[in-house]
Every structure is written in structure tokens, then in C-alpha cells.
Design goal:
Layout (H helix, E strand, L loop, with lengths): L7 H4 L12 H12 L5 E7 L6 E9 L5 E9 L7 E7 L14 H4 L3 E5 L39 H18 L3 E11 L1 H12 L5 E5 L6 H7 L5 H10 L4 H9 L3 H4 L6 E7 L7 H10 L2 H5 L7 E6 L8 H17 L1
Helix pairs in contact: 4-5
Protein name: Acetylxylan esterase
GO molecular function: carboxylic ester hydrolase activity
Pfam families: AXE1 (PF05448)
């Protein structure tokens, strides 16, 4: 894929006007308050992974509307009596939590690691998921982006963001976790969820988001026809009268809006040839990250962005994981 977006010098200065809903804060406060009326931990059962270096629990927690959400909780073996910093990880589009043996990086780096399953997903990539979505949808395009996109109250991604926040609540309720040192990480859809959570949970230790989805959605629709954004294009090609309402709904979950409220330091990554989550959409969120703190006269969170000029949606892969590990260690492990 050739370069198709703005030149890097323009991306670094790209701060599009914010068009967030007037009731954005009240909207999220209402849904967060409703979610937190229920106990968050529903079950945590130790599982045998046949691995000797880590210990794993099959966790169920109460997500949006109390729906049971599955997760794997993994920590270094022999640390039951040690309070560890935690990493909550969110998955990419179409993935489920798979097998606990598949994602060991953060636990073997010394963190307690909670890998959140994604409701209704797990049928497109990886080793499957374990969490059904009990909520139906009005007519939508194949995939998840347009499920109930005409109503922010029932929109799929509104519910998924609440799940993601409750995953932070869940890890903080587990034994042996340092509640003050919880970070969130993710790639693609997972990166978008990590950025959304950064604006809704004010006391995170750090945020790591690579090639984040659901940022500056209006821009994405204008410059890419790649999935998953193409789902919304396809849907609006049929429901021609619904554009204004659909874009208003998506604005509630747009990372460019939510990250303005972020307080935690962040490491972001983008590939300049990424048509799935175009670099200008990533820079739009990055450049607005922590705006409200700076507007209030505070220093605001530290921000770093890794740019991979010759990469598509795969970004820096293992090269960037090394940077993530070292970056997070410096901020959390000391």
C-alpha cells in the first residue's frame, strides 16, 4: 500500500475540530453509575494450563447491564502473596479471548494480566471467544460497527466500552492486584477501547494503544473503504436517511472525544500505510489526548507516538512490543 494520508509533518499538527455531543459527560456518567450498582466479580476459578511459569484463572465479571463477560486472569507463578501492578488488555476486531496460553507477554513481564473477552465476537480471527452478546439489534451491516447505530443508548460499542471499564473494576477487585497501578493496553479495536477507557477512568497508571480503531470516525469514512469502517458506509448506502443519527451515535464512543478527558501517560502507535485505522484518525486522537487537563492549566499527561512509515495495520509488531514493554516498565515497575 502506498502512502495515502496526510504527510507526517501535517499529521503531527493535525487537530480537527471536536464535534462531541453536548451531553457526552452526562451520558457516560449515567451509564457508568448504572453499571456500578452491581458487584463486579461473578466468578474466578483457577485453571490448569500445563504451564509452570504462570498461574491462570477463568474470570467472569459483570459488564454492561450486568451481562456476564469472560476473561483470563494470569500472573507469574509463585506470586500469590505479592501485590502486582496489573495490565488489562482488550482484543482486536473479531477476536475472542482464545486459550489462556496464547497471551503470556504481560504476565511473564511481571504484571497481573486480565484479558477481556469481547461480547459476541471471536468468530473471525484467533481461537474463538466465550462471551455471547444477549442483546439483539435492528437491521445492520455484517459485523459489529452498525449494531443499533441509530440509538446511542443501545449501541453495541457503547455497551462494549462499559464492559471495558468494568474490566478495570474487575481486576481491581481481584486479590494480589495493586489498585493504584492498573494500565490498559490494546491494538486496533483493543486500542480504541484502551483510549476510550482512558477518558472514562481517571486514575489509570498508563495507556498503551496501537493502531486504535474508532477515532475521528468522520475522517475515516471519508478516506478509507477498508473494513470495519466500510460496514458503516455500506449501512448508510442503504439507510440513506440515517446518516445524521448514526454519526451522532458514533460520536459518543469516538476516541478523539473521550481522550480529551484522559489523565494517564500514553504510548500510541500507527503505520503510515494503514488503511484500516488511517494515521490521520490516530493522530487526531493523539493530538487531543489530555486536552481538558491542559485547558485547566495543568501539565497534562505525557504522550508518545511511534510512527512506522512503511507499515500497514500490522504496525511495529514485535519491534513495537519491545518498546511497549520498556515504556510501561519505566512508568509502572520503576
Amino acid at each position: 500500500m502506498a502512502l495515502f494520508d496526510l504527510p507526517l509533518d501535517q499529521l503531527e499538527q493535525y487537530r480537527p475540530p471536536v464535534e462531541e455531543p453536548d451531553d457526552l459527560d452526562a451520558f457516560w456518567a449515567r451509564h457508568l453509575d448504572a453499571g456500578r450498582t452491581r458487584p463486579v466479580l461473578l466468578a474466578a476459578e483457577r485453571v490448569d494450563t500445563a504451564l509452570t511459569g504462570v498461574e491462570t484463572w477463568d474470570v467472569t465479571f459483570a459488564g454492561d447491564a450486568g451481562h456476564p463477560i469472560k476473561a483470563w486472569f494470569t500472573r507469574p507463578a509463585g506470586t500469590d502473596d505479592v501485590v502486582l501492578p496489573a495490565v488489562v488488555e482488550y482484543l482486536g476486531y473479531g477476536r475472542g479471548r482464545g486459550f489462556p496460553q496464547e497471551r503470556l507477554t504481560w504476565a511473564t513481564a511481571g504484571y497481573a494480566h486480565l484479558l477481556m473477552d469481547t461480547r459476541g465476537q471471536g468468530g473471525q480471527h484467533g481461537s474463538g471467544g466465550s462471551t455471547p452478546d444477549p442483546v439483539g439489534s435492528a437491521p445492520s451491516a455484517p459485523g459489529f460497527l452498525t449494531r443499533d447505530v441509530h440509538d446511542p443508548e443501545t449501541y453495541y460499542y457503547r455497551r462494549l466500552v462499559i464492559d471495558a471499564v468494568r474490566a478495570v473494576d474487575a481486576v481491581r477487585a481481584l486479590p494480589g492486584v495493586d489498585r493504584e497501578r492498573v494500565s490498559v493496553v490494546g491494538n486496533s479495536q483493543g486500542g480504541g477501547l484502551a483510549l476510550a477507557v482512558s477518558g472514562l477512568v481517571p486514575d489509570l497508571a498508563a495507556v498503551v494503544a496501537s493502531a486504535p480503531f474508532l477515532c475521528h470516525v468522520r475522517r475515516a469514512l471519508a478516506i478509507t473503504d477498508a473494513e470495519p469502517y466500510a460496514e458503516l458506509t455500506q449501512h448508510l448506502a442503504v439507510h440513506r436517511e440515517a446518516e445524521e443519527q448514526a454519526l451522532r451515535t458514533v460520536a459518543y464512543v469516538d476516541g478523539m472525544h473521550l481522550v480529551r478527558r484522559a489523565r494517564a501517560d500514553v504510548l500510541v502507535a500507527t503505520g503510515l500505510r494503514d488503511t484500516v485505522c488511517p494515521p490521520s484518525t490516530v493522530f487526531a486522537a493523539y493530538n487531543h489526548y489530555g486536552d481538558l487537563a491542559r485547558d485547566a492549566g495543568e501539565a497534562g499527561p505525557d504522550r508518545e507516538i511511534a510512527v512506522y512509515p512503511y507499515n500497514h495495520h500490522e504496525g511495529g509488531e514485535g519491534f513495537h512490543l519491545d518498546r511497549q514493554l520498556r515504556w510501561l516498565r519505566a512508568r509502572v515497575l520503576g
